[in-house]
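User: Predict the structure for this protein chain, please.
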Amino acid sequence: MTDINLNALKAGINRLRTKGGADPSSLYDLVNGYVAIDGSMVSRGGTESDKILPSGTKGLCAFNGGMVVFSNVPTPITGTKYSCEVLVNPNDATQAIKEIHFAAPFMGFLYVVAEFDNGDVFHYWLQAGGTWVADTMYKVGDTVLPTVRNGFRYQTVLKSNPAAWAPNVPRSLGDVVQPTVYTGWKYTVVEVDGDNPTSAATEPVWPQSEGAQISEDVDSTPAPAPPPSTSGTPGSGRYGNSKLLGDV
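Assistant: Here is the predicted structure, written as structure tokens:
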């Protein structure tokens, strides 16, 4: 076979010519290359391997500046560009993922449709507020991921729901209240004074720091009435009516 140097293409691709010798000025086909402006051919660069993903992972989706794959078990991946989301079959956690039919961002989170080896197909909306961090305040409804992915997300709920603060309500040691506008904080009565302590008539400004205290300083015990005014000895004339003097 004779080699022909194609370095001066003029006619581009011509598939009408099926017989005869090769024409160095035209092509019948061109794969993985392109014709430069001077008529020479340039080989197009091949695809480079960016990452060898762990076995058992399926799918690939761009999200939040990184690439995400999926597995039914926690699968560590070195580096920060790639991460693995764990999708667990709710009927059988041992089932491996067979195929990812769909994966794309939806309303700020990944929406994924996964099929498992046993044929089950489930839809997942992977809501998360980040990985759990120690000594961090989480409010009701916040969602966190465990530091080691296990396919579950955890949402904070109220262990108890104290009554909202109200004016002029009797108070006892140990009572727990929360502000009328939710802040994530609750407050415990640690000290009372007087026979009938109550909350104030106006809601206080609630501090939002661990261990802080606030005083409503209200005591509903009626103050004793002052004794009636009386003279030392009964008088006479217009000042002689002691009962009248006591009412004035």
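The CA atoms of residues 173 and 192 lie 7 Å apart.
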